[in-house]
Sequence to fold (748 residues):
Amino acid sequence: MHLDASPVVTLTSVFKQFGRFAALRGVTAEFTSGRLYAILGDNGAGKTTLLRVLAGLAQPTRGTVSILGTTKLRSVCHELGYMAHPSLLYDEMSGMENLRYFARLYGISDLTNNDPTQKDEGGAANMTAVGLDPALARPVAQYSQGMRQRLSLARALLNDPKLLLLDEPFSNVDSGSAREMVLLLSRLRSAGKTIFVVTHQALLLEGTADEFVWMEAGQITNRARELRPVETR
Amino acid sequence: MSKSSAVPSGVTGATLAKDLRLEWRSKDALNSMLFFSLLVVVVFSFSFDPNAEESRQIAGGLVWVAFLFAAVVALNQTWARELRNHVLDAYRVSPAPANSLFLAKASGNFIFVAVLEILMTPLFIMFYKLRALGPAWQLIPVAALGTWALVVNGTFFAAMSLRTRSREIMLPLLLFPVSIPALLAMVNATTAILTGELSAKFWIVLLSTYDVVFTIACLLLFELVLNAE
Amino acid sequence: MKRVFPILALLTAVLLSCALYEALVAAPTEQTMGNVQRIFYYHVPSAWTAFLLFFINFVCSIQYLVRPNPVADKLTNWTVIAIGIAACIAAFVIRPLPEGIEPSSVATTGLAIAGFYFLIRKCFSQPRTDALAVVTAEVGVVFCTVVLVTGPLWARPVWGIWWTWDVRLTSTLVLWLIYVSYLMLRRFSTSGQTPVLAAALAVFGALDVPLVYFSIWIFRTQHPQPVIGGGGSIDPRMLHVLLINWLAFLCFAALVCWSRYRLEILQREVEETQALEALLEPRSSR
Fold:
């Protein structure tokens, strides 16, 4: 599946404006499936907005977005996994409880196992994969920021999505766990998933990412397979 | 792990169960709401102190205004948990239908406000020495329909006011004008039952119509409101 | 179009002065109420104008919500046509009609609803229906305020009370409250999709008003209240003055709405241009 070179995401002249502020200015790009893309750029470059547009959370002011062959994003939303700056989790519930609930939103009911002694295969596996203990009964409010990030990633993986959109997954994560997350992403990519990672820590993805994409002032300014030490202007 | 492109079912139930479980666990909102309701009853009792005969005439209005205040405070925290970590984004990204979320939240609010009413009613009966001269059982459909009328629109406008400044004042501002016919029906039905002078039938029919019309309107328009950026 | 505006302004000025003269001087003095009754010539046309403006707002809100979705759009079109036809049929089939309602007025109302709907649909694009909605809401609130102020001013000397919960006054009050909350929503909203939220509120308001009317009507049959204005027939000379005043008010409303609409469109164009400029100029990175 990872040899399939068909475009999984196509952006055509996408503009996104918030009043007078233009977050995206005419972004036109194609992204093929089974690749890991690292999106880099300064704050305000439009990286988060780009991810939100792809996730269907923001409607482009102009232009079209095509994902998995369709412009009706709602029909493919079950193939998307999204992770953002805020954790998108309930602080008052434990890790597994959060995952069980969000699994229900995707129609995954074999996770909803009210017997605490029985292991929920999928959810537990997700948590272990990101380096968290599924048996942890602590509410998420008491997690460290890094743990919250990892649980958020586990949530994004619940529905086994074909397209992963991750906004700063490594922020506040210690380097050891970050490296493990990168390994996980690499495994997911090898399994055929397309992954977009917005990050300020480009070095973490050196050698793993298939392509680096630089954004500035709402446009894609450069794309390269190698991470150069100096960003082009 | 099963996954399909079909619309997931059982989301309403799962969301409602989660909300009830979280509310039970923290009991923060519940406790403060219960105490607030008690305070409202006491304040009203000091402000309006009629004898038993008069009390039946005005009790309908008093009780429902008190319930309305309690309901507004409850409705204002409908989306509080979802706002904290932008959980609504996770909901919007998933294939779960917007209406399931709405029904779950509205039902949760209904249960919440009903609990408050069940607490406040005996206090009112006590302080005002109330006794129903008409068919007392009719008070139950009146209370149920009336509470749903407040809660269904309240949940909708609470979602609308998420996109405004001064969120907490916008909710009652939007809710009260639209709720006036329902309020009139609730108060008059309750007074009719308490005094036994008139039939509450018309009011119950009006309340049912109101509930049906606005539940449909909310279900049709909620998705637009949820996805308004 | 630009030449029509001054002509309309002139016409309005003439009509308003004419109507003022008629109302205050020429119209016959009412038997029981005396000269105070003349306030009726401001109270009633203001009410009719306000209702018309709010109706236009409702139509615009529905169109704004429905037009982007082709299925919903078609459904609504057919529903409106059905309403027009049903009104015509009902006017001549339903016997007897409730008192005071003529068959011709039922048919005209149904046809007018359909007519307004399709006229607005033809003349205004979807974004512009929102502009029209704002305008009619604002001007409608002004006229509605006039109704609510002139009502008590009339009632006090004549019936000795400032206010009564009769059907018409209460419905007007609720309508006023709904549209004030509509304007507040528009002002306080931080969303980029304020028109959608406001349109949803307008739909809720429109669903609410018949329920208010009906609920007060039931309330009144259970607890009879004094009726402001009274029903019954009206002297033809008074009717003539009333209609002239209404025409004058309509022209005035059209004038104000038109100015406000032009202002609103211009404001939106300025914002769009500024947004486009922001797009084109190179942005310095923060």
Q: What stands out?
A: The interface with chain C takes residues 153, 160, 163-166, 170, 173-174, 176-178, 180-182, 184-185, 188, 198, 202-203, 206, 209-210, 213-214, 217, 221, 224-225, 228-229 of chain B (CB under 8 Å). Residues 11-226 of chain B form one domain. Chain B has nine helices and no strands.
